[in-house]
Amino acid sequence: MKRLLCEKDLLTKVSVGDQNAFKMICDYYYHKIFTFSVRILHSDLLAEEVVQETMLKLWLLGGDLTKISNLDGYLKKIARNKSIDLLRQKELKYKIDNELGKEWDEGHNETEEQILLNDTRKILEDGIALLPEQQKLVYQLCHQEGLKYGEVAEQMNLSPLTVQSYMKLALRFLRNYVSKHTDILVLLIIFRLFGK
């Protein structure tokens, strides 16, 4: 596997909300984290959960992303910790189910995923509503309507640097707000919500 080029540049871009840079990192590390987690968990489903949580944690770091000097080691450490947490949860659930005479089922539940998606979308919408007016407008124009900073600056009669500053503040607030109001998000949800 080729080394990810310009890792520092990508992390800097992700720190200001660049989804394409985030997707490049996700695409590059997906298989690596998944394989690593399967070796610990012996479960594809749980390994997938580890990948999603690892990438979520990376996304939510915001400006702190630029402090990471070894992304490979950093992601491996997160994946290891998440895997161990899941093993503990799995063991606890198994004990509880045995006491209650139930079997532990690792099945996939579409309804739960849909509820999670809807809940997460609602949490993000609540967060957007709490943004100061200028930040909210910049976020909506850039993230929801897909305009570039220059176009938004022209439309709002601001400098592109001011627009970028508003966007950084908005993303930092939304990352914190979402992380405080949610337990686990699926990577798909991150792309759907922060991408619209």
Quick structural overview:
This protein is mostly helical.
Topology:
Layout: H1 7-15, H2 19-41, H3 44-60, H4 71-100, H5 110-130, H6 133-144, H7 149-156, H8 160-180, H9 187-194
Helix pairs in contact: 1-2, 2-3, 2-4, 3-4, 5-8, 6-8, 7-8
Question: How would you sum up this structure, described in words?
Answer:
With 196 residues, the protein is an all-alpha fold. It folds into two domains: 1-108, Rna Polymerase Sigma Factor, Chain: A; 109-196, Winged helix-like DNA-binding domain superfamily/Winged helix DNA-binding domain (Arc Repressor Mutant, subunit A), CATH 1.10.10.10. 76% of the residues lie in helices and 0% in strands. It has helices spanning 7-15, 19-41, 44-60, 71-100, 110-130, 133-144, 149-156, 160-180, 187-194. Helix 2 crosses helix 4 (71-100) and helix 5 packs across helix 8. The longest helix is centred in the middle third of the chain and has 30 residues, at 71-100. The radius of gyration is 19 Å and the shape is globular. The two termini are 32 Å apart. The model is unreliable at 103-109 and 184-196 (pLDDT under 50).
CATH architectural designation of the largest domain: Orthogonal Bundle
- Rg, Å, rounded: 19 Å
Largest sheet: none
Note the beta-strand portion: under 5%
The CATH topology of the largest domain, please? Rna Polymerase Sigma Factor, Chain: A
Query: N-to-C SSE series?
Result: HHHHHHHHH
Q: What is the H level of CATH, i.e. the homologous superfamily of the largest domain?
A: RNA polymerase sigma factor, region 2, helix turn helix motif
What is the CATH top level name of the largest domain?
A: Mainly Alpha
